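Side project, low priority. Logging it here so it doesn't get lost.
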Amino acid sequence: MADVTPFERLRAALADRTATVGVIGLGYVGLPLAVAVARRGLSTIGFDIDPAKEERIRAGRSYIDAVSSDELAGLVKADRLTATTAYDRLAECDVIVICVPTPLSRHRDPDLSYIESTGREIAARLRPGQLVVLESTTYPGTTREVLKPILEASGLVGGRDFFLGFSPEREDPGNASFETATIPKVVAGDGPEANELVAAFYGTVVEKVVPVSSPDVAEAVKITENVFRAVNIALVNELKLIYGAMGIDVWEVIEAAKTKPFGYMPFYPGPGLGGHCIPIDPFYLTWRSREFEISTRFIELAGEINTAMPNHVVDVLARALDERLKLALSAAKVLVIGLAYKKNVEDVRESPSFKLMSLLEARGARVSFHDPHVPEAPNTREHPEFAGRRSAPLTAESLRGFDAVLISTDHDAVDYGLLAGAKLVVDTRNAMARHGLSGANVVKA
């Protein structure tokens, strides 16, 4: 009887759910994925370099809204999910999923250092029959050209000894309609056997798998999704400026336009882009395109428009203070509403609120923030100066101490009726109008 191949062994382990899965990076993507995998009965090990995450998971205490502490504690107690900082445990895993950050450098070039260092950790422990899947968003070609050579430095050969794939994460923090298991999963493997294994693995975890022909295509899918949003947000941000100069409310225009049942999809302006994908991913494609001598003018223009929005908002605020209160911005006390990048979440990654606060303070304003979901500003790479700053209370008494309120994030938990009593409200989200509040002290930006 012929020996069973590594491919056949792993396929059988996935089919009978005896495979052990490792998830590297227990952030907003990795932890929900680890929970979804464990929920399906697969033994799951979460890996992270942060000991605090290991401790919280072992104690059954979630630090992400998308994962409830009750479910996390139940999975940990049932020995279906554990967490560790010890990479040596990768040898126990049949499937290894990489969910590490892919930021931009200060020059807006891709920073793949987390993928590369993680790949080296895996390569040092790689054994025949393992499936490695990258979920981190990146440019087309990364899985084959960057990760695969690192893994093959182990002496094992991809497609024969181990298997490699890519499946882009599609998390949307705060979206109550979808979670990891219910979002269709695009999958691809490096070769036909890897393709089958990647589809088999995710088929046990999510409701719908969408196979594509190669990791390059899967990487391009994710980039396309986020470029689509970035370009359309830039369009409405530009329309906001144009219509504003004409005395037309862009939010009213959008509400009327979206009644058309075909040929239109609503996007909304704001104070700038935030989150882990849209402000970053399009620049991965522009960087990659240079290698092929192709100019990405449309994408770069969208980036310029969106990046300029915080400056526009601060200019509107300064002008409103001067015209309505006869007060210079340099002498003003400003309360920024919302530190998170989007409503009803605690996620502050790439939040435009940090840029707004930095611009305001650079012009001499004294700035505080209020966010019901973020009690304290975390340390961030771009704005470490705000680390540890506490969310200010929002009361009628505290509001009297500010010259202006700047609505950057429209959390539902904010008392907008209370804000209506402020001396000046600059609203970047149309939140006041949506709550039926208006007045001479409310300015849209």
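Brief comment: Residues 6-213 form a domain with the Rossmann fold fold (CATH 3.40.50.720).
Revisit when time allows.
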